[in-house]
Amino acid sequence: MSKKANTIVFSTILASSMLLTGCGLFGGDKAVEEIDPPKDVSYVKDEKSLDTAGDKQENKETSKEEAAAGSVKTELYLVDKNGYVVPQTLVLPKTEGVAKQALEYLVEGGPVTNMLPNGFRAVLPADTRVLGVKLEKDGTIIADFSPEFANYKAEDELKILQAVTWTLTQFDKVERVKIRINGYDKELMPVNNTPISEGVSRADGINLDSSNSVDITNTKSATVYYLAQNGKQTYYVPVTKRISANEKDQFAAVINELVKGPNPTSGLVTDFNTDVKLLDKPKYENGQLTLNFNESLFGNMEGNKISDHVLQSLVLSLTEQPGVESVAIQVNGKEKLMNEDGKKLTEPVVRPADVNTGSF
């Protein structure tokens, strides 16, 4: 159910907003649902026209099987033990209102409680009700919450914005998120006063890291995926970093951040060898990004095998860039590579439909 994000620029205080567009996930007409909103507000109960990045041809059969079984995989952004907002793909009951349901599963003490992975928690305050979602034609979703939404600690404010925004923007055509409380637009978040009058988008980033930025005004952002571990569980964590505005190639900049790795105090790691380098400038054409690395990309793997963690970190990070749908990987100009299990990479690699399920 993942959707590649449009993540190029973000503000450190999350000031831009996006509203959700389209109809529901499974196709069909809009149905209107109102729950004590102002008279000029209508809420979409049946968002059937929404598509997801996972609904590409290669995943259609899986979607049919899930639908027939009365369940659907949904990407929920939860908070891990280190305080990072992290995608976890969970199997939820089949419903017509997928966006509203996803938000309901972000509520502490709500239906997600018995499904939470070890070390994770839901971020929305307990007893918060999702009053409705309003879909706009411009790619905006308005999410309306009950007054309990405001009952959170100041340190959770950005986590809440990021979790709500990234959960909703997993759906195709969804670009922005705007928040209402009890039917009324909010210009500021209720506790720490983060500006939200224009809404929030993935461009505002997630798990913001500006530790290496001296002059933030002369930087731009890039979201990369590092690794975290909880017991035997290894999972991918998106981190939005600041890079020099003078960097001419955004794709190369993303790769450089993956190789450089996370902040040493972050508790995150990278699986990239520090000697990994691009031999050629990345080539982009019709949604496909082609990369040619040196042999250090193999790390400690035997033969022409690429670590799954390296491969998925690359694909997840680069498909966050606008327009990138798949990544073709070469080493010394050769394309005959294999994944960790020895399966030949005969086609460019697309973003996985399910993030952090152990299915990589």
Describe the structure.
It is built from five helices and 14 strands. Helices cover 14% and strands 23% of the residues. It folds into two domains: 32-204, no CATH class; 216-350, no CATH class. The model is unreliable at 4-61 (pLDDT under 50). With 360 residues, it is an alpha+beta fold. It has a four-stranded mixed sheet. Strands 11-12-13-14 form a four-stranded mixed sheet, with helices on one face. The chain has helices at 60-68, 98-104, 157-168, 250-260, 308-318; strands at residues 32-33, 43-44, 71-79, 85-93, 130-135, 140-145, 176-181, 184-185, 219-230, 233-244, 283-285, 288-293, 326-331, 349-350. Strand 6 (140-145), helix 3 (157-168) and strand 7 (176-181) form a beta-alpha-beta unit.
Major pleated sheet: 4 strands, mixed
User: What is the straight-line distance between the termini?
Assistant: 14 Å
How many domains? The number is 2
Low-pLDDT segments: 4-61
Basic shape: globular
Mean pLDDT across all amino acids = 83
- Counting helices, strands and paired strands, the structural category is alpha+beta
Q: How many strands appear in the DSSP assignment?
A: 14
Helical content class: 10-25%
* Percent of residues in β-strands: 15-25%
Report strand order across the widest sheet: 5-6-7-8
Q: Element order, helices and strands?
A: EEHEEHEEHEEEEHEEHEE
Region (Disordered): 46-66
Domain GerMN: 99-190, 251-340
Pfam family, one: Germane
Protein name: GerMN domain-containing protein
